[in-house]
Amino acid sequence: MRISFCCADSKPEPWLDGLRAALPQAEISLWESGAPPADYAVVWAPPQQFFDEQNQLRAAFNIGAGVDALLKLRLPPGTQLVRLEDAGMSVQMAEYVCHALIRHFREFDAYEADARQGQWSFRKPRLRADWPVGIMGLGVLGKRVAKAVSGFEFPVLGWSRSQHAIEGMRCFAGGGQLDDFLSASKVLICLLPLTPDTRDILNRRNLSRLQPGGYVINVARGAHLVDEDLLQLLDSGHLAGATLDVFRTEPLPTEHPFWRHPKVLVTPHTSARTLRDETIAQIAGKIVAMEQGQTVAGVVDLGRGY
Ligand code: NDP
Ligand code: OXD
Q1: Domains within the chain, CATH numbers bracketed
Q2: Active-site residue 104, yes or no?
Q3: Candidates 141, 178, 181, 197: which one to mutate for ligand 1, based on the most atoms within 8 Å of Cβ?
Q4: Angle between helices 108-116 and 89-105 (to 10 degrees)
Q5: d(Cα 148, Cα 98) in Å, to the nearest integer?
Q6: Model pTM?
Q7: For 251-262, what is each residue's pLDDT tens digit?
Q8: What whole-number distance in Å separates Cα of residue 67 and Cα of residue 79?
Q9: Which of 75, 126, 148, 181 could form a disulfide with 94 if both were Cys (CB 3.0 to 4.6 A apart)?
Q10: Is 65 in the pocket of ligand 2 (CB under 6 A)?
């Protein structure tokens, strides 16, 4: 069995060593043009040429959860695309979102500013009941985040494509229930995949429906958010702030207003990083299962885009 590794932005040697240790029976190499056809690929942002040449793959394993960039490429017919499922990302996402939520809810940003001025001043405690948290996307990451947020006793709501029933939270589904979900939420967390249906979903129409003083946390993809619409709603006062981890252009250009906006906190696409050991273990396990004729979880439905 041959496995080809083609990942932009990752030092290949530790990945190749890890994959070889996990799959000693396989021939594993760093892809170069003209390489013999492989059975499986491990990829992140490969060039189109990779799939044009490696056209006999049974499966291509993405070393990330989101496959929007891969779906812009022409995949070889018959190749299954398999995404990363959790592999240590969901707990990181829960940490990140809870930090952003609690930093805003408890006004730690304001206390930090006070402390720098040497000021000892209390703020009135806020009521959790007034801060319903809406989570868009109830998949692997959204569900873990919902559990973590519920642990802090915020009211939690969720919105997904199909109807879910999750204890302790109100679940909404589909376009028909989007407005009800938004108007019942004050904090909005985006954990959707980027698809034609979800692109630009954090727009003026939808963000205006959040409760006054709303707060936005986007940890999914930059193209979910219409930047100008968010800025206008922050400046008009309808929204109180935003924590943004993902952007239409990454790295976020230095001249982008988000960097300097007093109500926006920017982080560099770091909310849930791919962890090498967990990722290799998951992919190796799936390759072994596929070799034994088993079906594996995490196969992307190309029609729906996630
Ligand atoms: P999943 O595929 O497990 O979950 C996707 C969820 O979104 C599902 O609940 C799905 O609904 C819902 N959904 C999809 N399309 C729609 C739609 N049109 N309307 C309503 N709901 C919809 O994905 P993950 O939880 O693993 O990851 C989510 C995203 O997070 C990734 O695609 C990626 O873009 C982003 N991400 C960001 C990272 C970062 O560092 N910032 C790291 C990792 C991921 P249903 O349940 O009905 O199928
Ligand atoms: C991912 C990411 O999709 O890192 O895994 O954004």
Answers
A1: 2-87+274-291 (3.40.50.720), 89-266 (3.40.50.720)
A2: no
A3: 141
A4: 60
A5: 7
A6: 0.97
A7: 999 999 999 999
A8: 14
A9: 148
A10: yes
